[in-house]
Automatic annotation (TrEMBL):
Coiled coil: none
Organism: Pigmentiphaga kullae
GO process terms (BP): amino acid biosynthetic process; carboxylic acid biosynthetic process
Needed cofactors: pyridoxal 5'-phosphate
InterPro entries: Aminotrans_IV, Aminotransferase-like, BCAT-like_C, BCAT-like_N, Class-IV_PLP-Dep_Aminotrnsfr
Keywords: Pyridoxal phosphate
Domain of life (superkingdom): Bacteria
Any GO MF annotation of the entry: catalytic activity
UniProt cross-references to Pfam families, sorted A to Z: Aminotran_4
SUPFAM superfamilies: D-aminoacid aminotransferase-like PLP-dependent enzymes
Protein name per its UniProtKB record: D-alanine transaminase
Annotated Gene Ontology cellular component terms: cytosol
Amino acid sequence: MIPGIEGDPRVYLNGEFTPLSQAKISVLDRGFIFGDGIYEVVPVYGRKPFRMAQHLARLERSLAAIRIPNPHTVQQWQDLVGKLIETSDAQDQIVYLQLTRGVAKRDHAFPAQVVPTVFGMSSPFARPSAQARRDGVKTVSMPDERWLHCEIKSTSLLGNVLARQFAADRDVPEVVMFRDGYLSEGSSSNVWVVKEGRLLAPVKDNLILEGIRYGFIEDMAAARGIALEMRPISRAEVDAADELMLSSATKEILPVVSLDGKPVGDGRPGPVYARLREGYDEAIARL
């Protein structure tokens, strides 16, 4: 048994579906040896994938960035995600896709003529609780000590793991990270700032992973007349924010009501969050 996973779900590995307990990779797989791979996480609502085209486009960008050839067409990926959804009875799911460079003799340089390893699985999606959406969550800050290519959705996630554990050790669900005095992101979330009704977001560059909800929130802000500004955001601006929010595939959109033990704004979810949350729920209902 694997902790946190019930039963023995069927997963996809290199062209075949098999029980999770029987899915095996070589110890020389470069994903295992070097973290040489990328991944994607697609939320599913009512058995329908959410913003699938955007997730597959980011998967393609990540593969291209580390020079792994994409082994599937868009249609093949869509078909695979559909089959993974069928492996679970859950209405809401999280589909996880991972590709590594493949199996080869251990050597840092890219091997020639290697076949990528492709893995996929689906798990029930426990959406953020009604209490978290209503009351908000607490966070703590820390320096962003990760590498300089955070725009790649890489399986090399040790920096993110350590950041998430920093939060767990302090009994909060997420960190808010700063690099050289400016906001970057959370361990697995984008971070949003609201000041005087204006929504602020860090620039989409190599220092953050552009979450798929990032683009979605851009669309919702435009549709709801919320001014959005993308630019470097100082620590002082974060500390003086009227609202803070987190966004990710699994967190959706969550309000932050405390940072380092100090209230954000009046310590309650704010009106901009409420408008974006409403838009998110409406979009899901339309799937």
